[in-house]
Write a structure and sequence with these properties.
Blueprint lengths: L1 E2 L1 H8 L3 H8 L3 H8 L7 H11 L7 E2 L5
Antiparallel strand pairs: 1-2
Keywords: DNA-binding
Pfam families: HTH_3
Organism: Winogradskyella alexanderae
Length: 66
């Protein structure tokens, strides 16, 4: 799975730490998601959707390996 979380954060002008606090996870979790090392739960993806005010499919995409 690929994502554009880093880009979405930049659009909002917030840091990994600020995003993490908004959705109740650690900064390391945000870093791992951005680096495609961690696939978030549905609940976490929906929280990100609410922060970015976009559908989940706008910032998460399946790859051929998925």
């Amino acid at each position: 799975m690929q994502n554009t979380i880093k880009v979405e954060r930049a659009i909002l002008g917030i840091t990994q730490d600020e995003l993490a606090k908004k959705i109740g996870v650690s900064r390391q979790t945000i870093n791992s998601i951005e680096a495609n090392r961690y696939v978030p739960s549905t609940v976490l993806a929906l929280k990100l959707s609410a922060i970015f005010n976009k559908p989940v499919n706008d910032f998460f995409r399946l790859t051929d390996q998925d």
